[in-house]
Amino acid sequence: MNAQPTFNEKAPIRHDWTLDEIEALFALPLLDLVHRAQTVHRQYHDGAIQLASLLSIKTGGCAEDCHYCPQSAHFAKQTGLVKETQLDVDYVLGRAKLAKEAGATRFCMGAAWRSVRDGAEFDAVLDMVRGVRALNMEACVTLGMLQPHQAKRLAEAGLTSYNHNLDTSPEFYDEIISTRTYQDRLDTLALVRAENIGICCGGIIGMGEKQFDRASLIRELSKMTPHPDSVPINALVAVRGTPLEGRPPVDAFDMVRMIAVARITMPKSRVRLSAGRSEMSAEGQALCFMAGANSIFYGEKLLTTDNNDALADRELIEKLGLRPEVIEERSAHYDLDSNEQIADVSAAN
Ligand code: SF4
């Protein structure tokens, strides 16, 4: 493994992390790992935490069979989740405004689609993106697979970032999803990248994967050039009626390790402590921040599962002395491959 950088020596941005190196990071004593991640974190970040708000704009009835997801039509009978029609643009923008007033700087919108279809629903999503950007917030959507002209239209609407998670390792992927391939995911991400839209891409732990799979997922993410601008790390929320309903809860220290390894291997990305946070203690979350998490989903629901409420989040942020990122604090498309510190763009709003 490459020598560990010292406080004076900035960790290089690398895309050639090997599985052996990543597995060796996972094997470090926890506090050594957290110390190393915190060292890298301070070289590239100033301690601000981004608050992102997530809204399901079209819930349920998805044709994919992701085994963790209550929105899949394949498990609707067992989960009892009712398919809803798409929310209208004014309602969504009203929610975005409320999220901004509560301190969120990024508004993420999820539609349970296998892939985008041209037509009124997609046109409405484009209006939502334009409206969120007009609020001076970052706009992120997750809509499934895309065609090139659809990625182009999203870019023209001003989309900041497209969420499309790899979910797990290429080796374990078939255990979790059968209706699309790993390569399908990578192809969509390439289309998004080609339009210069930011990429939000991460995964889920606690689905029955081995330690190797977590390392392999990190390797896939860190190979991306540049690294994803945001890397959500999720703990499985085992929803009743889904094939993974019986999985045991994820140990908070496993989340800490995953976040720390993501931080070390992708120094400039925002690492987002995502699903499963509501099951973590304040102390567990504090360790995740120490390991390099610098973004959280903020608000009541994560698509269809419960999330910490905003008041509890604000109390935690205050107690830990964390500084919420302000809008436009950093440009959405800063250079993820540069070794330079993130420039302070402005401190508007
Ligand atoms: S594609 Fe998204 S909405 Fe559809 S089943 Fe998978 S995770 Fe759920």
TrEMBL record:
Enzymatic class: transferase
Cofactor info, note text: Binds 1 [2Fe-2S] cluster. The cluster is coordinated with 3 cysteines and 1 arginine. Binds 1 [4Fe-4S] cluster. The cluster is coordinated with 3 cysteines and an exchangeable S-adenosyl-L-methionine.
UniProt keyword terms in alphabetical order: 2Fe-2S, 4Fe-4S, Biotin biosynthesis, Iron, Iron-sulfur, Metal-binding, S-adenosyl-L-methionine, Transferase
Pathway the protein contributes to: Cofactor biosynthesis; biotin biosynthesis; biotin from 7,8-diaminononanoate: step 2/2
Domain Radical SAM core: from-to ranges: 47-277
Recorded catalytic activity of this chain's protein: (4R,5S)-dethiobiotin + (sulfur carrier)-SH + 2 reduced [2Fe-2S]-[ferredoxin] + 2 S-adenosyl-L-methionine = (sulfur carrier)-H + biotin + 2 5'-deoxyadenosine + 2 L-methionine + 2 oxidized [2Fe-2S]-[ferredoxin]
Keyword Iron: yes
Self-association and partners: Homodimer.
Similarity field: Belongs to the radical SAM superfamily. Biotin synthase family.
Name listed for the protein in its UniProt record: Biotin synthase
